[in-house]
Design goal:
Radius of gyration: 23 Å
Helix content: 55-70%
Largest sheet: 4 strands, mixed
Structural class: alpha+beta
Strand content: 5-15%
Distance between the termini: 82 Å
Number of helices: 6
Order of helices and strands: HHHEHEHEEH
Number of strands: 4
């Protein structure tokens, strides 16, 4: 009887070990799949932004077409906004592979490049859209920051749904110690996270309702 119990215990232990390792393996495969999808999104966005910049530079040599530049910029802004939502869903899941954080930094740089491009188009064409850059803490937000950033994100989603192409909503992590982003944070005197920067001259660090942003978008 004792020998039989030992065998049952051994079988249970082996089965538990197999299931545990299978779970780890499946989790790793799922995470790898997410990374592959994020990488594909990045490469597609990088290609589109490169095409947009080459097109803009070409038009500067020939004859700058503001209508076309604005149209393409709005189209790309919608794309990076949708991608941000997809990436957020992946990051809300349990992370096993830290490559997602690496991919996040790549997207931050891509969005920063897009922001700079949007500034140049605004200077040259005076479009009626607003740049709304959302700097937030990505790596180690405090409990207070997490709550605040969740509130900011919800308001910005509502804002984007309401105003659509009238705003270029650009989320960028402000704590990744990236030289180019740090330079912009210093230039615009962004001292705390989260912070909204509207049209490169209005900074918002406290929000209570959507009207606190809307009044700058008239």
């Amino acid at each position: 009887m004792i020998k039989k119990q030992k065998h049952i215990f051994l079988y249970a232990l082996i089965l538990t070990f197999i299931i545990f390792n299978l779970g780890i393996f499946m989790g790793y495969m799922l995470e790898s799949s997410r990374i592959d999808k994020i990488n594909k999104l990045y490469l597609e966005s990088e290609l589109e932004l490169l095409d947009q910049r080459i097109q803009k530079d070409s038009l500067e040599i020939i004859d700058f077409n503001c209508d076309l530049a604005i149209q393409e910029n709005i189209k790309f802004a919608d794309k990076i906004y949708e991608e941000a939502l997809i990436i957020q869903r992946y990051e809300d899941a349990n992370r096993i592979n830290e490559n997602i954080e690496f991919q996040h930094k790549r997207f931050d740089l891509l969005r920063t490049l897009f922001w700079i491009n949007s500034i140049r188009i605004k200077e040259k064409c005076n479009p009626d859209y607003h740049n709304v850059v959302y700097f937030y803490n990505y790596d180690n937000p405090s409990i207070e920051q997490k709550s605040k950033q969740k509130f900011f994100s919800n308001l910005l989603s509502e804002l984007k749904n309401k105003f659509g192409n009238k705003i270029m909503l650009i989320p960028i992590a402000g704590d990744k110690e990236t030289a180019s982003i740090n330079l912009l944070l210093e230039a615009y005197e962004i001292k705390e996270l989260p912070t909204l920067l509207i049209d490169e001259n209005i900074k918002i660090t406290e929000l209570e309702k959507m009207e606190d942003i809307e009044k700058y978008l008239d």
